[in-house]
Amino acid sequence: MSTTKIVIVGSGFAGSVVAEQLARAGHQILVLDQRPHIAGNAYDECDAQGVLIHRYGPHIFHTNAQRVVDYLSRFTDWLPYEHRVLASVEGQLLPIPINQDTINRLYGLNLDEVGIQAYFERVREPRDPIKTSEDVVLNTVGRDLYEKFFRGYTRKQWGLDPSQLNAAVTARIPVRTNRDDRYFNDEFQIMPKDGYTALFQRMLDHPNIHLELNTDFFAIRQQIKAKTIIYTGPIDAYFNYCYGRLPYRSLRFEHEHLPGISRYQPAAVVNYPNDHAYTRITEFKYLTGQQHSHTAIVREYPQAEGDPYYPVPRPENEALYQQYKALAAVERNVFFVGRLAQYRYYNMDQVIAAALKTAERILGSA
């Protein structure tokens, strides 16, 4: 391999954004991906009947970062989309994040905003300091809502009790006293008009970018003589697990095509915190805006084994990551970026921002 090339391991958002930025600056880029397609976990495709699905579970774009939106807008037009989620609790489908309607319908009440705030104050169990995900929820909404909406879901998702997880996990989910039933509060809530894969195809469509799919970086690592490597895979794998394996949570997806049904459920996502082995069902047509006489859904089954999706946020895991981060800091001409390489529970916009920053660092030192 030529020593003039920059090699990027992974064609998800982290790798593709860096590839595009460096290629536009005149560098020759080789992008490797072990999967048979680009776009990483954001990959979408039409199923056999033509319904656009997200192969690796729902990817919903939301951000407050104007810079990220401006950057992606070079590769896609947008559809407005406000994400809504319902939770199946005691025979009802109730809004999550918890809001005024959730409380009133669950308990047969008729409280306004002031009444809801007073209700939370009455039932909350103050926690100081707040260290765990359990602390966050009990401190905000109390024991009963914790048990009904959070504890079972978290146990399925992470294989751990909320009391064993960092506060950041449940702190991601707001609690509202009004009737706002949107899942996110961000200024920009939009979806790529032609889907994510089309966005990535445009991003990587540059004469300076060469793609090699179905290629395992570790199988050809000794042959690579690049002057710079951008690595987006699991950081512990890069260093051959020398300090032990970092825990990641995986998922199994059960896709189902439903012919002759235009709508399967009343919202894009329905959570099942207390029933079934799966955590949620997503119906893709809500996300994509696609008009089709059929519909398609996916059930998500969290598991310990399989492709790594989520770094497990616990203090001991962070301490282990810091050991690998110290190795990465002295690795010459190798940049680690993305959810797996930085062992962070990033949203898509955070990955893109980190990738843009990484590209700036590389170009600044070139």
Automatic annotation (TrEMBL):
This enzyme's EC code(s): 5.4.99.9
Keywords: FAD, Flavoprotein, Isomerase
A single GO cellular-component term on record: cytosol
Domain of life, source organism: Bacteria
Keyword Isomerase: yes
Co-factor requirement: FAD
Keyword Flavoprotein attributed: yes
Residue ranges occupied by any UDP-galactopyranose mutase C-terminal domain in the UniProt entry: 148-345
Enzyme class: isomerase
Molecular-function annotations in GO: flavin adenine dinucleotide binding; UDP-galactopyranose mutase activity
Family indicated by similarity: Belongs to the UDP-galactopyranose/dTDP-fucopyranose mutase family.
Matches recorded under PANTHER family: UDP-GALACTOPYRANOSE MUTASE
Official protein name in the record: UDP-galactopyranose mutase
Protein encoded by which gene: glf
